[in-house]
Amino acid sequence: MSGTRPAAGGLKSCATNAPPNADRQPAPAHDRLEDQLPVPPIEFIDLKTQRERVRARVEAGWGRVLDHGQYIMGPEVRDLEGRLAKFTGAAEVVSCSNGTDALWVPLLALGIGPGDAVFLPSWTFTATAEVVCLVGASPVFVDVDQDTMNLSPRSLAAAIRLIRQEGRLTPRLVIPVDLFGLPADYEAINAIARAEGLKVLADAAQSFGAAQGNRRVGVLADVTATSFYPSKPLGCWGDGGAMFTDDAELAEVLRSVRIHGRGGHGKYDNVRVGSNTRLDTLQAVVLIEKLAIFDDELAERQRIAGRYAAGLGRSVSVPAVPPGSSSSWALYTIRTRRRDELKRGLAERGIRTEIFYPRPLHMQAPYRDYPIAPGGLPVTEELMGEVLSLPMHPYLTEAQSEYICRAVRAAVA
Fold first, then answer.
1. Phi and psi (nearest 5°) for 173?
2. Angle of helix 281-292 relative to helix 75-88, nearest 10 degrees?
3. What is the pLDDT of residues 331-346, one digit of tens each?
4. Residue 140 pairs with which residues in a beta bridge?
5. Which one in 125, 168, 263, 267 has a CA-CA gap of 20 to 30 Å to 14?
6. What distance in Å separates the CA atoms of residue 71 and residue 62, rounded to the nearest whole number?
7. How confident is the model over 241-263, as a mean pLDDT?
8. C-alpha gyration radius of the chain
């Protein structure tokens, strides 16, 4: 792993201009944990409070589903797709049964298969790469940007050049991952893809609700996939996902693949090989009610992110959003070379944290033999020893976030 990490604007280094060993200075008296009021253990994500907020409306909606009995592809599914289209500005929305299928179905619809190269970061959850392997294509792992931790356009361009020079694979697709809620650099990525004749599939499993410029996630790439897993910014009470595009012809193929490759002449008219990946009507009801409070929850996430940024001081490196972008703050991920020590210290103080991700994909058994960008993935390999995600959800109180900030400062002091 790389032994140094430069500070830069996208990821704010709170230790910039600090004296040597600044993060080992004694904590000021007012930051000592013994000066703080005791608080109960702080969970990483609080789904219970949100559930109680929407429970009555969801149960009423479920009652309507029980009355009409259309449990698969009922009217609430179409209603949800229309609401999602209005929210994002996407011309076409196609719901599906989970976020992995939201990535997989577009690959089938675009005809990605054996001999094709798909460029994606290694710094992601396995679903991003496994769908590429499942259609018989080859993932090509690209490094991420030091500041944003999203796919690096420079590494992407170098990887495409390498694959073309080798001549074994045909470059077909780029899958940027909007890590932790922040959209990737779509302006640069789309420009590279257009110049090379590639399509762009956005993995927005963590970024639904975020924006770049005046455009929301869902319209930043040729096609966008998101997840409605319960812990996501917009989550249901089970599995769910959706695909977004402005390409009407592609949307029709996505709908066909979603239901066994169905054609236009009924259930037994099959025009392609497809799958069964429909969103349940009951989950659509949950998402309709959660979407109704989603803007409010996004605003709360932003306020909490602001409290963290202000309260963590110079103790760790905190994320910052590039100008013109917004984050959905699916996760609030800090960086420190004393990560493991910090994680233990927070656990002792009743604060649950998570590491996303302990090992990048190119270092794991299923993916070790696939190509990587020229020069390797040094930033990716550096991140795995430094990142730590703090509790983040719309119902984290000001007192809790202040306690977390003080605990972080105390743990690294």
1. -150, 145
2. 40
3. 999 999 999 999 999 9
4. 119
5. 125
6. 10
7. 98
8. 22
Nearest CA-CA partner of 332 in 290, 301, 293 = 301
Angle, helix 47-68 to helix 75-88, in steps of 10 degrees: 130
Find the length of the chain. 413
Is residue 6 one of the residues assigned to a domain? Answer: no
Helix ranges, 182-293 (H) = 186-196, 248-258, 281-292
Q: How far apart are CA 47 and CA 393, in angstroms?
A: 8
Q: Measure the CA–CA gap between 374 and 112, rounded to whole angstroms.
A: 23
For 298-321, write each residue's pLDDT tens digit: 999 999 999 999 999 789 999 989
Mean pLDDT of 184-200: 98
Euclidean distance between CA atoms 140 and 185, whole angstroms:
18
Residues 252 and 369 in one domain: no
Residue 113 one-letter amino acid:
G
Spatial contact of 133 and 103, defined as CB atoms under 8 Å apart: no
- Together in a domain, 369 and 286: no
Measuring CA to CA, which residue among 357, 329, 354 is closest to residue 343?
354
166 and 197 in a single domain? The answer is: yes
Residue 120 is encoded by which pair of tokens? 């994606």
Q: Measured on CA atoms in the order 189, 159, 12, 381, is the torsion positive or negative?
A: positive
Q: Whole domain around residue 24: which residue ranges?
A: 11-47+294-412
